[in-house]
Every structure is written in C-alpha cells, then in structure tokens.
Amino acid sequence: MKKLLFIITFLLISNSIWASFIYVPMSYDNQKNHLKAYGIVYYSLENGLKAKWLLNYDGGAFLIENNDAVEKECKIRGVSYQVISDSKAALILEEISSPSQNMEAVTLEKAPKIAVYSPKNKAPWDDAVTMVLTFAEIPFDVIYDEDVLDDKLLLYEWLHLHHEDFTGQYGRFYGAFRAAPWYIQQKKDAEALATKLGFNKVSESKAAVSKKIRDFVVGGGFMFAMCSATDSFDIALAADGVDIAEAMFDGDASEPNYQSKIDFNKTFAFKDFELIKNPTTYEFSSIDMTRKRKISKTSDYFSLKEYSAKWDQVPTMLTQNHTQLVKGFMGQTTSFDSNTVKSTVLVMGENKTNGEARYIHGTKGKGMFTFYGGHDPEDYTHRVGDPKTELDLHPTSPGYRLILNNVLFPAAKKKKQKT
Questions:
Q1: Residue 37 confidence (pLDDT) above 70
Q2: I need a surface site. Which of 10, 174, 225, 408 has the fewest CB within 10 A?
Q3: What is the Cα–Cα distance from 396 to 392, expressed in whole angstroms?
Q4: Residue 166 near residue 264, CB atoms below 8 Å
Q5: pLDDT greater than 90 at residue 5
Q6: What are the C-alpha distances in Å from 156 to residues 51, 130, 150, 402?
Q7: In what order do the strands lie in the sheet with 51-55?
C-alpha cells in the first residue's frame, strides 16, 4: 500500500513539472524573429488553443497552451521559444499580477478574421501590411469597393486600408505622374469601376465606400490605416457632399469656398485642417507633416508612450515593443501635425521636437481605429517603382511590430480603458 501511494505521489509530482506551456519571448535579446512570432500566436488561436499576451513582460511575450504542432511551427518558422512547466508559468503570472508591476496578462480568445482593402491588381510589396501579414503567415482576404458596398465587411473583425485616396484625386499624383502609363491606366480603371457601381464620379464612389467603412467601425469593427489612407479617409468623411476635386480629377471644377463647408465633426481623428487647393501638390491637407518636417534621416525617430497595463490595456497592447524608440520613415502622408489631432485621440507615438504624431488610436461608436504615418517602416523614402522590402532582412523590425500589434489586439479579452 505504501509503495502504491509512493508511486501515485511520484507521478503527481512528475506531472506537475512536465512542460505545459510554450513561452515566446519578445525582448530584443531573447527573440530572433519578432514578426513571425505573431504568426505563431495567430496560428495557435486559429487552432483553438489558449494564449496569453504578457504586456510589458520580456518585450510583450506570449504564453501559449503546449501543443506539438505549435512547437513544430516555432522551429519551422525560426521563432525563439521555450517549453516551460506549469509551475514556471505560475511564477511568471504571479510576478505580472503584482500591483507594483506595470504588467498584465491578457487572455487572447479568438483569431480575428482579417480583410485588406486594396485593388486586386496591387502587388503585395505595394503595402507594408500585406507584406508583413504574408511574412508572418497570417491569413487575410483582399476586398475592394464592390465588396465593401455589398456589405462584405460584416464577415470580418479587422480591416486594413491600403494606401488609398478616398477623395477621388488619384493619390494626388497628377503633378509628377500624369503622363505615366500606370497613372493613366489606374485613372481609367477607377472611372470604369465607379461607373459599374452606379456612380458618376470616382469621388462619389469613394465617398460611399468611406461611409460603409465608417459604419463598420461604428458597429464594432477594428480599422487600421497607414500613409495616405489615414488623412484621405478623414477628408472624404468631412467633405461628404462637397466637391473638392478639380477638373483634371473629376471633369468639373471644385465648388466655391469648399474649405468653409468641411465638417470636422464627421472625422475620426483630425480637426481644423486646411485642404491644399493646388492639384499639382502631392499632399492633401495641412494634416500631413511631410513638407513641414525639419529633421534628418539619422535623427528621425519617434518615441512610444507608456500606459498602465492593468488599466489601459488597448494602448498598452498597441505599443508593445522591444524598444521605446522607433526609426521614422517617409510616405505620402509621413506623420500628422499634432495641432490637427483631436483631443479625444490617443497619440501613442510622437516626435515632440518636430511637433508631429506618428501613431494614433481612437474609438468610434463601438469600434476602434489606428492611424500609422508613413509607407514602409524599413524603407525610409519608398518611391514609386522601388523594389520591395525583404522582411527576411528585418525579422525584428520595431516599426513592423506596431502593425502586428494591431492585427492581434482584437483577439484580446479587454478591460474598460481608463485613459
């Protein structure tokens, strides 16, 4: 009998030290492929496994229910990981739960279904988000105007806006590229699609699409946008029913005094901006800091703000990184003039010296949005026709991590935000 009790006790003790979690570190020193690590977490959730996001712990590490398939994927994808015991996991969670620590363990419940709003003929390297989703092996669907107007957004939890011009001015490329074959073809394609959808102008079709996307967010969706999709989206909402496009864009002149008819109450993030009337100018409005910047490439960085992990989980998730200082990068819309950002919007990344916001977040109705200035975090001055960024060369990119934070955070069980 004593021998039997000894064996049972031994088995119970042995079982308690068996590894039962996969720990994925995310600090600079401990993770060799930060970007693919997000793909591992998404893969785990997609396959019904439990996971926790350890905010402000080891660079924003992940704790995943132990599974042979996940461990195999970590090895295949080159993601640093450890298999740890129940007791080790309990010690980590105990440390995180201490009131003295600005840390929190957030339960990740379900992999969000992802849509990327983009023309179907765009190459993956035209957009940093599609590029990093592909690199991280996170599945997504490409949708465009027809799908949005057919209410296909209802099938998704997360939407990314490609570097689109929602004002119907073809990216304001007229000044530099109006004679380029690709510009002429894109204009023809956009006009043909607008006609097919029953609109007289591209600006009218884009306005309708913008309002559908707005309704998606208001109804509880998560929206992420970069570069020109950020300010052009807000401008399109503010200028609803107002003709701000010149004749070379829509065949007739803009209406008189259109600036005075802009309604800032309709925007998500921006206020008090002046539209740029010269159609040969690349920028849309005074929101964009590209032409106003006085900063060299070598000193172009922005800092991430720190939030209370226990109370403000959403911005804490969105700013998880292995560095608080992130390299800047240019784009059609590089960054946002701080004076044009609404007071209700969180500025999570900024360059105070230059007076610019780089990374902002807010709520609209039941949903949330994040705007991220710039085109490609690892290509400082990405230009039309430049080769694509090879993310194999940048697997630990802090700038790209910010994108993937946004992809993953809708999976989290959230507490009410206090900030």
A1: yes
A2: 10
A3: 9
A4: no
A5: no
A6: 21, 16, 13, 21
A7: 82-85, 19-24, 61-65, 51-55, 104-108
d(CA 239, CA 68): 54
Q: Which pLDDT does position 415 carry in this prediction? A: 56
**CB-based contact 325:219 (threshold 8 Å):** no
Rounded Cα gap, residues 267 and 314, in angstroms: 21
The CA-atom distances, in angstroms, between 247 and each of 174, 195, 244, 274, 277 are: 12, 18, 10, 20, 12
Q: Alpha-carbon distance 190 to 201, whole Å?
A: 9
How far is Cα 351 from Cα 302, in angstroms, rounded to an integer?
5
| C-beta of residue 209 within 8 angstroms of C-beta of residue 315 | no
pLDDT at 381: 85
pTM metric for this prediction: 0.92
Gap between the terminal Cα atoms of the chain: 61
Question: Which tokens sit at 92?
Answer: 């980590």
Closest to 56 measured CA to CA, from 312, 316, 418: 316
The residue with tokens 């957004």 is 153
Q: What is the pLDDT of residues 193-224, one digit of tens each?
A: 999 999 999 999 999 999 999 999 999 999 99
State how far the Cα of 269 lies from the Cα of 95, in Å rounded to an integer: 37
Cβ neighbors of 158 (< 8 A, separation 6 or more) are: 112, 113, 114, 115, 221, 222, 223, 224, 406, 407, 410
In three-state secondary structure terms, 234 is helix
